[in-house]
Write a structure and sequence with these properties.
Blueprint lengths: L39 H18 L6 E6 L1 H13 L5 E5 L2 H13 L5 E5 L16 E5 L1 E2 L4 E2 L14 E4 L16 E5 L10 E6 L1 H9 L13 E2 L2 E2 L14 H16 L2 H21 L4 E3 L11 E6 L2 H4 L3 H18 L14 E5 L6 H25 L1
Parallel strand pairs: 2-3, 2-4, 4-7, 7-8
Antiparallel strand pairs: 1-9, 5-6, 8-9, 10-11, 12-13, 13-14
Helix pairs in contact: 1-5, 6-9, 8-9
């Protein structure tokens, strides 16, 4: 039977993600529209966004935080282009974004001393094989595979290289071990439901030291330049952005930060995301046609929750038929208005991907799950009828 209870908010996209509960455009009323981002009032808002990020995430003293162009992609690229080169580098890739950073290092920067540690979707590379005498680049949470690293204990405290962590779907939902990291990046449109195109670049003291003692051999685009006369350009990390930010988006991010503080700060955000994962996990345990893509609970993401089809009938289909079946299931949910944008990433195995970050309400997830059962049953019946 088709369910009758519908999610109040059907936005389960993994980016841009659901807005915070209760959000309306009125939250943007204080935006400094039509003003220069160099004006004192605008720079104050940019600085407030930086310091609000520091407070909420518990970023240690000595770390610099900058608002940068190009979303998380821009922040990661700035780090790779500015910092890599003096040492060999180990790249960890177990889904599409990690593979993307590997491609940039190998084919764009063309570094020679590169180690690539890979794993298929649903698994992690051998973390014990990472050499911390070298620089290390990884995604803390694989957004397209639903796999996260379990903790930071595997990272050497006495490392010689830098650890560069793309944390765009981990920040504000998972603990980040600041003492084991040197660069952290994320974007506004992920865990707090902000608007797109703005990234955050967080640099620890060891990364700052590298910047001031290493001059990359390649031309550095203006958007990537973090130093001036051989020293860190401190103004960038106080709100004097490299290019023009959207003050409308800044206002939205400030609203998201205020909401996060109002619900209990970082511990509450993590708890909300983990509780959402638990809702899905309880359903998966009693549902024979579906399984987690990440089979091991310890590495299972609590934000980008990726699901695979476990039904032997589905597995018997050809690869094109599997992809088409998954596409039809997702389309039927969108047509009913109960779930938007929950298909697996284009490079991932056919399946479903539910964003379970803190801005998603557990009640909406609970209301959605019977619809997934219904949609799968309807899609399977229609396919078998045609066959």
């Amino acid at each position: 039977m088709q369910p009758t209870l519908r999610p109040k908010v059907a936005n389960f996209s993994s980016g841009p993600c659901a807005k915070r509960p209760g959000w309306t455009p009125d939250a943007l009323a204080g935006a400094l529209l039509g003003r220069s981002h160099r004006a004192g009032a605008a720079k104050a808002k940019l600085h407030a966004a930086i310091e609000g990020t520091r407070r909420l995430l518990g970023v240690p003293v000595g770390w610099r935080i900058a608002i940068v162009p190009g979303s998380d992609t821009g922040a990661v690229e700035m780090a790779l282009w500015s910092l890599l080169g003096p040492l060999g580098v180990d790249l960890l890739a177990w889904e599409s974004f990690g593979q993307g950073w590997a491609t940039d290092v190998l084919k764009q920067l063309r570094l020679k001393d590169v180690g690539l540690l890979e794993a298929p979707y649903g698994e992690l590379p051998d973390l014990a094989a990472v050499d911390f005498r070298r620089d290390v680049v990884l995604c803390w949470n694989g957004t397209t595979s639903g796999v996260r690293v379990p903790d930071g204990a595997w990272i050497a405290a006495d490392r010689q290289g830098l650890v560069i962590a793309d944390a765009t779907s981990a920040a504000f939902a998972m603990p980040l071990p600041w003492d084991r990291l040197d660069v952290v990046t994320f974007s506004w449109q992920k865990a707090l439901g902000g608007e797109a195109q703005h990234g955050m670049l967080l640099l620890g003291p060891r990364a700052v030291q590298r910047l001031e003692n290493h001059s990359p051999p390649w031309p550095m685009p203006k958007l990537f330049r973090l130093t001036k006369n051989g020293k860190l350009d401190e103004a960038i990390f106080k709100g004097d952005t490299i290019n023009t930010p959207s003050m409308l988006c800044v206002e939205d991010y400030l609203d998201a930060l205020r909401w996060a503080e109002s619900v209990g700060g970082l511990p509450a955000l993590i708890a909300r995301s983990e509780a959402n994962l638990a809702v899905v996990a309880d359903w998966v345990e009693r549902t024979p046609w579906v399984a987690f893509l990440a089979r091991r609970p310890a590495i299972r993401s609590c934000t980008s929750v990726c699901l695979a089809f476990a039904d032997p009938w589905f597995r018997s289909l050809s690869a094109p038929a599997q992809a088409e079946t998954a596409k039809r299931l997702v389309a039927s949910l969108e047509k009913e208005g109960v779930a938007y944008d929950i298909g697996s990433y284009r490079d991932a195995p056919p399946g479903l991907r539910l964003w379970c970050g803190a801005t998603v309400q557990a009640a909406d997830l609970a209301a959605l799950l019977p619809w997934l059962d219904w949609a799968y049953g309807e899609t399977k019946a229609a396919a078998q009828k045609v066959a």
